[in-house]
Amino acid sequence: MGFKEMFNLARVPSILLLGALYVAYVLIGGVIFWHLEGQLGTRDVGYIIEQKQNLLNKYTCLNAVQDASKAGISLRSNYTTDGFWKFTTSAVFAATVVTTIGYGNISPRSSGGQIFCVFFALFGIPLNIVVLNRVGKYMLAIERNISDFLEGKMNHNTRWIHFISYLSGMVLFFVVPMLVFQNQEGWTYSQAIYYCFITLSTIGFGDFVADNNPEKTYPDWYSILTACWIFFGLAWLALVINHSIEILERINNQLKGWWGSKNPKEGSANAEDNHNTEPETDTSCYEANY
């Protein structure tokens, strides 16, 4: 066995390399944001707490409300978190930058943080598109392999497998997160499902943001779970959007054929084209969101 064959056998799949690069990129970005913005937030905490106390005593320092909220300080008690620019929240912020969600609940305030954010997004957004595209293709391939396997075992068409796949994705990326957010954030079910869709569709209004309430102490796993849910949920929802586009294109072609059948010449031409042309399947994933 030559060196080339040994290298091919030991070669790590490219999706794992891309995934490792993606995770490392986001974590490194989170560390840099943490150091650039965290110290600034720590210096401001004492001043903002004093302003908040004046607000509660005199009801005149209304400008402190926005500052306290931005720094992650509770307005109703003396309890406060470590601020929004902890490592976990900084890493989640880095993920929202490269995925273009951009809630707007926190943003860099230092000059270094703002400049770094520009270059971090410049290289991070294309990397995010490439990785999610590959992940979406793998998810699509797994679904098709399962469908083909069951179809071979049952000896008949199993189109209902696709429906079960979509239903499973809905449960995994919408129903389960909805229950988690309802429990951790105290949101209603409608608010939680609304947040799930606004996040995974990258709309990101910012009216509801997970791991963002200064009145609560969140477990350490919560931010990690939220980041993983965003990553895989984006790939899944983009895949669903591409399937929806494919279905709409097929309906459009059928309508064209139906209207064209009123003209005998056009109808025969369309029928011949449809007979000779195989339907194509678009396996692209994340481009639907851009």
TrEMBL record:
Keywords assigned: Ion channel, Ion transport, Membrane, Potassium, Transmembrane, Transmembrane helix, Transport
Domain Potassium channel, residue spans: 81-139, 170-249
Transmembrane region(s): 12-36, 84-103, 115-140, 160-180, 192-209, 221-241
Top-level taxon in the UniProt lineage: Eukaryota
Keyword Membrane: yes
Bilayer topology term: Multi-pass membrane protein
Primary location group: membrane
GO terms for biological process, alphabetical: stabilization of membrane potential
Molecular function (Gene Ontology), one example: outward rectifier potassium channel activity
An annotated GO cellular component: plasma membrane
Family: Belongs to the two pore domain potassium channel (TC 1.A.1.8) family.
Protein name in UniProt: Potassium channel domain-containing protein
